[in-house]
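From the shared-data thread, chain only:
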Amino acid sequence: MYRDNTKVIHIGDRVIGGGNPILIQSMTNVPTQDVEAVVKQILALEKAGCEIIRCTVPDEEAAKAIPEIKKQIHIPLVADIHFDYKMAITSIENGADKIRINPGNIGGEEKLRAVTDTAKAANIPIRVGVNSGSLERNIVERDGGVTAAGIVESALDKVHMIEKAGYDNMVISIKSSDVMMCVRAHELLAEELDRLGTRYPLHVGITESGTVRSGNIKSSIGLGLILDKGIGDTIRVSLTGDPVEEIVSAKLILRTLGLRKGGIEVVSCPTCGRTKIDLIGLATKVEDMVQGMPLDIKVAVMGCAVNGPGEAKEADIGIAGGNGEGLIIKKGEIIKKVPEQRLLEELKAELDNWNG
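Structure, as tokens:
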């Protein structure tokens, strides 16, 4: 697998590449200079399981906020830079653990070298980012539109620019909102980097994927296909909404693919005419309740007592609803019957005292 043999990169106190665990990333969506708001958001993301955070740095005020933000958080901070090479340098000098730039819009070869020299002195990596929406006009016109091959060509051109400036501590990111094009681009990029013998770690995601509903579907398909091909060292599920949702989705994608263990998996039935309890509300409450619980088990939430006990046998513990009441089922055995209004608290008590 490509990811098993990528270059090892250190981002703050985290390590990616070389077969290390795939890390989950997100991005703040409040002004970076508003330290209180940024820290509040990052701490919520940390609690959900975020392992790397990216903040936009459009001006000097945002860059100067980095030290105070870093004092209050516990994960590496990546500074997102566009157009102004001075912001990249200032961000590094203020303690950013990594910077994200597009070498093509940073201001020319001399300014790019100033950035890479600063990054080298600080020993921090550079993420080279190329999105399908920012592809060079000459490539688009030549190919008659955006193509997977064109995205890869553009990305490798940026990589070579950094290498020419004397630096190779890099992570590469190529993204497209076209799911299958994005998948193909990652395949081509991994093949080309393997051929060149420069197996840089890859950050993967589907850009501009949409709202929580559509974005989750696109990201699950795209990331699932890419990760299953052995590609990807860090991931982000890009959603239009609360970034905490990105973390919840990313964890579930990794767990579903067998790339991460830990955390409670909740399975629930789609309900039918036999359902006599508020299963939809109950399943949602169970899913919210188990977030962050340090257990590696499966919890089933079933709608009726007809098939519930049987369907819950594959789970470690489960609920099967009845008419105003429900069963608590552990390892396929019914252990108690309780009123509907106590199902959640009884399940929580079992999980709080879980001994397998």
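Residues 114 and 347 are 58 Å apart (CA to CA).
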